[in-house]
Design brief:
The protein is of the alpha/beta class and 254 residues long. It has a single domain, classed as Ribonuclease Z/Hydroxyacylglutathione hydrolase-like (Metallo-beta-lactamase, Chain A). The protein is 26% helix and 22% strand. The protein is built from 9 helices and 13 strands. It has a 7-stranded mixed sheet. A 6-stranded mixed sheet has the order 7-8-9-10-11-12, covered by helices on one side. The model has no long low-confidence stretch (mean pLDDT 96). Bound molecules: zinc ion (2 copies). The site of one zinc ion (ZN) has 4 residues, from loops.
């Protein structure tokens, strides 16, 4: 399984991640924060499915642009996979003619721009040789993480979330788990903001790690760009083990 966190900087590649998108095996995306800005456009056109974790802007920012770039009047429309609440939020706050044309209404008379596939907690489904299971996380709005298994290896994406129990219980029951991408959004100086916005700091990140009773590779994601150095400084002050922060643009193989 190949996983790439997509760059969201313009001008030159940088470690900062302003918006969130992962691409798995070149054909499945998780979140649409920046897939609509990928170059060349053929990379976007290879994506058959986009799984949305939730409707916060850093996860859907490039969705309208992406749908425009991959639109075909003759081909199979891209599938957007999301929970019902996320679908409702995207339809009423983005595709409402004010922020972007109402693509759902337009599709009543034109070839569709996309089709929805509804995700439900713990209901596994298959796409392009991957089996995907939505995992309920603990965030400001209903949010899914994902367990992705290609038949040989299994990777969990756990973001965005505040401390959560059920997700780790679920992952502890899995026969195999090779890696976890876990969010680490704020430094300790902003612990109260992290609590209010339902994200993790180094202290709560470490607590979450201990809930998983498996030996896996850990990757930190979703570090607020301007706070990256402070977050990593806080982490090294309370943990002996080094932390691996995902590098946008790098391809990780499992
Ligand atoms: Zn969020
Ligand atoms: Zn986010």
């Amino acid at each position: 399984m190949k996983i790439q966190v997509i760059e969201s900087t313009v001008g030159q590649s940088a470690r900062h991640q302003f918006a969130v998108s992962y691409v798995i095996n070149d054909t499945v995306a998780i979140d649409a924060g920046c897939i609509g800005f990928m170059h060349p456009i053929a990379r976007q056109q290879r994506l058959s499915h986009v799984l949305l974790t939730h409707s916060h802007f850093d996860h859907i920012a490039s969705l309208p642009v992406f749908l425009e770039n991959v639109y075909s009047t003759t081909g199979v429309p891209v599938v957007l996979c999301a929970g019902e609440e996320t679908q409702r939020a995207v339809q009423s706050h983005v595709f409402n003619d004010e922020v972007w044309p109402d693509l759902i209404r337009i599709a009543q008379t034109e070839p569709p721009f996309f089709t929805w596939q509804t995700l439900r907690e713990s209901e596994t489904f298959s796409i392009n040789g991957l089996s995907v299971t939505p995992i309920r996380l603990n965030h400001l709005i209903p949010t899914f993480g994902f367990l992705i298994d290609d038949g040989h290896t299994s990777v969990a994406i756990v973001s965005d979330t505040a401390p959560v129990t059920q997700a780790w219980d679920f992952l502890n029951r899995q026969p195999r788990l090779n890696a976890v991408f876990l969010e680490l959004s704020f430094p300790e100086s902003m612990a109260e903001l992290a609590r209010r916005t339902m994200h993790l700091t180094p202290t709560t990140f470490l607590r979450e790690q201990r809930k998983l009773k498996k030996d896996v590779d850990w990757f930190a994601v979703h570090l607020k760009a301007t706070l990256r150095e402070e977050i990593l400084g806080d982490f090294s002050a309370i943990s002996d083990s080094p932390i691996v922060v995902v590098e946008p643009g790098t391809e990780y193989s499992f």
